[in-house]
Amino acid sequence: MADQPRVSATAGTLLGLLTERPMTGWELVAQAKDRVGNFWTIQRSQAYRELGQLEKAGLVIALPQQERRKRPYEITDAGQAAYLDWVRQVPGDESVRIPFLLTVSFADDVPSERFDALLEEQRRRHRERLETYEGHWATLQGTARRDARLATLALGIGYERAALDWLDQLPTYLGRDR
Questions:
Q1: In the chain, which ranges are continuous DSSP H helix?
Q2: Which end of the chain has less Cβ packing within 10 Å, N or C?
Q3: Range name among 35-44, 61-70, 88-97 with the lowest pLDDT average
Q4: Which residue ranges traverse the bilayer (predicted)?
Q5: Strand, coil or helix: what is 98?
Q6: Which of 9, 71, 1, 7 minimizes the C-alpha distance to 42?
Q7: Domain-located, residue 3
Q8: Of 166, 141, 143, 165, the residue nearest 154 (C-alpha)
Q9: Do 163 and 96 touch, CB atoms closer than 8 A?
Q10: Which string of DSSP letters, residue by residue, matches 131-160?
Q11: Is 87 exposed, middle or buried (0-12, 13-18, 19+ CB in 10 A)?
């Protein structure tokens, strides 16, 4: 397998999704968002760029265009081999980026009422994601190939609960008890 092209994490993710069925770029982005969206984002422009590179490398083929100029992609045997090589590699380190944490680090420069509004917005977002993940969890019960998806969702659910707990404690850390 040494002659297999090395693929990026984004390309590997797209190839992995294509092992399930042919999909358009739009569908691939939606599937990635559904499964790992808050931990690994893939933009549409990025997906189409990667698909073009994967096609040039012979790892996917574009199928005939469908209605509304939708073009599904299918993984090739070489793409399957490249995917399997990628998925078996040791993943790189996490790169956590939390924009609100930047605001928190400069909280002394944010008026209290504005900070409270930002904090409430963060709570809302994390509650919504938690509800979404819990809904996916309920939907996946009893389905085939659910174990890996449940493992991913378990991290998402745990993260959202931890984030909400941290947000609840944040005013105390900042000396802004309510």
A1: 9-18, 25-36, 44-56, 77-87, 99-105, 112-140, 147-173
A2: C
A3: 35-44
A4: none
A5: coil
A6: 9
A7: no
A8: 141
A9: no
A10: HHHHHHHHHHTT-TT-HHHHHHHHHHHHHH
A11: middle
d(Cα 59, Cα 11) in Å, to the nearest integer?
A: 10
- Residues in the chain, overall count: 178
Which of 175, 169, 131, 172 minimizes the C-alpha distance to 153?
A: 131
Cα–Cα–Cα angle for 39, 41, 44, rounded to 5 degrees: 165
Q: Which residues of 95-122 are buried (b: 16+ CB within 10 A; e: fewer)?
A: eeeeebeebbeebeebeeeebeeebeeb
Provide the token pair at 88. 């078996």
Residue 178 is assigned to a structural domain of this protein: no
Tell me which DSSP letter residue 3 carries: T
Give the span between the Cα atoms of 8 and 172, in whole angstroms.
42
Cα 55 from Cα 46, distance rounded (Å): 14
For residues 51 and 79, membership in a common domain is answered with yes
Structure-token pair, residue 72:
């599904």
Tokens of residue 136, six digits: 């996916």
Per-residue confidence (pLDDT) for residue 55, from 0 to 100: 97
Residues 25 and 53 in one domain: yes
Range of the domain at 150: 99-173
- DSSP summary character for residue 15: H
Q: How confident is the model at residue 92 (pLDDT cuts 50, 70, 90)?
A: confident
